[in-house]
Amino acid sequence: MSSSLTYAYYPGCSGLGTSIEYDQSTRAICAALGIELVDIPDWSCCGSTPAHTVDHTLSAALSARNIAQAEELDVQGIITPCPSCLTNLKTASHRMEDPEFKEKVNKLLDKPAENRLPIMSVLQVISEKVGPEGVAKKVVSSLEGLRVAPYYGCIMNRPPDVMDFDDCENPVAMDELMAALGADVAPFPLKVECCGASFGVARKDIVAKLSGKLLDAAEDVEAHAMVTACPLCQMNLDLRQDQINSANGSTHDMPVFYYTQLIGKALGLDAKSLQMDKLCVPPAKAFRKMEEARRANAS
Amino acid sequence: MNIVSLSNSYDADFVSAVEKESKQNVSLCYQCGNCTAGCPYTHFYDIPVSQVMRLVQAGQRETALSCKSIWLCATCESCTTRCPNEIDVARVMDVLRHMARRAGYAPEPKVKTFTDSFLSSVEKHGRVFEMGLMATYMSKTGRFLTDADLGPKILPKGKLSFKPHPIVGKEQVANIFKRYNEERNS
Ligand code: SF4
Ligand code: SF4
């Protein structure tokens, strides 16, 4: 049997591209926290939102190929940083508890999936298996003074009977981890509101409106930065922030971190693995405000 | 919403098809409006989600399948999470979109093109090739300036690969699509 925290890791397609800093920082902090990740051999795309809007069996089969690949490994379960991949994997697994559906899905696959491994987000594993206390013990460079607005996105915790983690209306896992790093956690009222999801390409107006609301709210609670756990949310808020500003006449200049980058920073991990330079809105401003807040507190 | 005459337009087969495919009992909906109240997309919908539920109950196939809302639902799961009658409303919306596709409706053509481009990228490479996806999308929609302003932001970051990341098992993924299409056409 492998060590107690060994998981099959599903990076998700965006982890190779637009969210490479999320993937890299996830790998770095898992190593530092004693979570062993074994990449799912030859993993494929889960189909993301497009697949389930076309057909549920097709969508489940695209996820189930990865579940079957992971079943070759000696691991405790499957974990992924991406909430969209997570939803697809978990929904497929949940629906395959129905033998009739499972058979339909397996008929589309070269190699059938047994569907026996638990599936979790990396966030869930860190918050439940390591815990905020476990993380706090490893902090070498506190984030004291940094005021963050944790934003979970819509599907990390919903629907609750499938996702089975944290609170579906008021999740706190990231809040607790950020507090454990010493950060000042703002009460963010739109934790689970949708950012506009994958409509950035086909309907920019939708993203401008919904993500714009999130940025406004983060500004209202005087956050120095937002913290996310979702590649799509991060991309809408960060990469599209100028588009949002010009659509709404706003002037946001809000850094948007992955929670893994902030954990990594507090654990003193090297800049290369955290890839802060991949963020579009430069994070330096947030750290300057953190220093100012510290000085103000000290005096 | 327009007034519908139930006596000559109630389609019982439609109601049972939605119920069967979604595994939900739509008659449980008592129109409390919770789903619509929490739906972040209501502003962009032509018919709010609770009214879509009503149309399904009332067997209004044509109106339900031709609306834009089912193409704009992002499956944010707000409605499903908050429905007091435990109806998986987002699943009903998904199923309506499946049916609308099969019936040839596409009132949000760009959304459909994006979905199709995404899936053909997966079918071809086993994983999504982000650059290739955008190229396909742009050539199909003729919107060459889509996100052109993002290029200078993202390209210097070296995040986007100009080549796909093919996988060894890409045939296995292509087989999933092949079998799915055969099944559907049989
Ligand atoms: S929340 Fe449920 S019961 Fe209320 S209107 Fe929506 S579907 Fe109907
Ligand atoms: S899942 Fe769709 S219909 Fe339901 S609240 Fe979200 S966007 Fe609206």
Number of structurally distinct domains of chain A:
2
Distance between the termini of chain B: 38 Å
With strands numbered from the N-terminus, the spatial order across the biggest sheet of chain A is 2-1-3-4
Oligomer state equals heterodimer
Kindly, what is the distance between the CA atoms of the first and last residues of chain A, rounded to a whole number of angstroms? 54 Å
SS element count, helices of chain A: 14
Provide the structure class of chain B.
mainly alpha
Give the % helix of chain A: 40-55%
Radius of gyration of chain A: 19 Å
Bound molecules: iron/sulfur cluster
Unreliable residue stretches of chain A: none
Strand content of chain B: under 5%
CATH architecture of the largest domain in chain A: 3-Layer(aba) Sandwich
Q: Please indicate the count of domains of chain B.
A: 2
Structural class of chain A: alpha/beta
Measured by residues with Cβ under 8 Å of the partner chain's Cβ, the largest interface is: A-B, 60 and 58 residues
Order of helices and strands of chain A: EHEHHEHHEHEHHEHEHHEHHH
Q: In sequence order, what are the helices and strands of chain B, one letter per element?
A: HHHHHHHHHHHH
Q: Can you count the beta strands of chain A?
A: 8
Overall 3D shape of chain A? globular
Based on CA atoms alone, the radius of gyration of chain B comes out at 19 Å
